[in-house]
Amino acid sequence: MSIIQPAHETSPGIADAQTPAAPPAGLPTPLVLLLASGAGLAVASIYYSQPMLGVLAADIGASDRAIGWVPTLTQLGYALGILLLAPLGDRFDRRRVIAAKSAALAVALLLGGAAPSIATLLFASLAIGLTATLAQDIVPAAAALAPDSHRGKVVGTVMTGLLLGILLSRVVSGFVAEHWGWRIMFIAASASIALVGVALWRGLPRFRPTTHLAYGALLGSLGALWRRHGALRRATLAQGLLSVGFSAFWSTLAVMLHGAPFHLGSAAAGAFGLAGAAGALAAPLAGRVADRHGPEMVTRLGIGLVILSFAAMALAPWLPASTQLGLLVVGAIGFDLGAQASLIAHQTIVYGIEPGARSRLNSVLFVGMFAGMASGAALGSLVLASWGWVAVALLAMLSAMGALLVRTWPARPATAQRHPATGR
User: Phi/psi of residue 24, each to 5°?
Assistant: First the structure.
């Protein structure tokens, strides 16, 4: 295997401040597709259990309350993994981190498939969430390998794989569980992660660590990066605000469709998830536009599309029921496309800030994004119960307008650059 060399050698305890001095002219398409597949399969592990909860509860003898902790612990594990484990990609050879997490995720999924009790399944769910952050190691690896002129395109393609993993995971797991049982789904997922882990180990070059910080200092440097880089704060705040509306919509959609005038079941709400395909397939296009015209333009266009989509959906209650449903579908496609395009652009911005801190920068961005999603879920339910669907659409529109304000607010002059490893 070839070694990605740093721009210069450093003394022990000092980080490399640069990415490879001479990035490859272009990444082989099979490697990009492998990275996209790895990201998709990793993040899909978080969502496999959701359509199977009814079957799981009956088979394992768990109460509805207890089985509800399965997706909760999986999501909690993923959030903790982004914060506590994803920064390790800067400290160690990212290829080894990817291989180690692939092995751990495969074992966690296998444990879930073999779980004899709810206690074991809950432990496996937390472990699955923690190690599924493998996806958040693969995306920075793709950004590090890609040349500057094509970074947006490469990141967009890998993110397409990640987004399709989210989109298709529930469909696949529901089908497999119905025909062959929920344990087979976990076992098949484990095998897929093991295979992609081996392929990534063989296909990726080695990465020289960009910092030699101890683990505590590595986590502490997240705060230093936040304070030092206005571009990171703007990207994180804007994407977090977009995530508030995104989560408010999806967390209340099933309840809204269940009531008048639609009276539709959960299957109809699940079918709305296919709108996510538009965002997933648009990700490489957003990356190409960011490469050619700059990511700032893409963020503003994406946020503008989100605002228009939710503004249109706020008008739905005053239209005939059939027209309302069509408007909701079009609006869901529009805001998902805008939110995903903005995410790709924000990642392009963030990955260009400090090449030696890409894993940590990615952690900060996604912690902000998940904080926005958690807030959106809570606010969406409260607003729907108090003021109805129109208020949810207005909440989402206002949060997107806040994101646009963040992106258009004049940036402060850059502060003096500090060393990416020490923060001094």
Answer: -60, 150
Best CATH choice for the domain 25-209 from the list 3.30.420.10, 3.40.50.2300, 1.20.1250.20, 1.20.1440.230: 1.20.1250.20
Question: Is there a cis peptide before residue 71, judged by omega within 30 degrees of 0?
Answer: no
Q: What is the pTM of this model?
A: 0.76
C-alpha 389/C-alpha 386 separation (Å) is 10
C-beta atoms surrounding 214 within 10 Å: 11
The dihedral built from the CA positions of residue 110, 113, 116 and 122, taken in this order, carries a sign that is positive
- Give one DSSP letter per residue of 312-352, joined into a string: HHTTGGGS-HHHHHHHHHHHHHHHHHHHHHHHHHHHHHHHT
| Nearest Cα residue to 311 out of 344, 274, 286, 338 | 338
Q: Do residues 154 and 32 lie in contact, with contact meaning Cβ atoms separated by under 8 Å?
A: yes
Structure tokens that stand for 186 in this block = 């976990």
Domain 223-408 falls under CATH 2.60.40.1120: no
Convert the pLDDT of each residue in 170-208 to its tens digit.
778 888 888 898 999 999 999 999 999 999 999 999 999
Q: What are the tokens at 138?
A: 């693969």
- Which residue ranges make up each domain of the chain? 25-209, 223-408
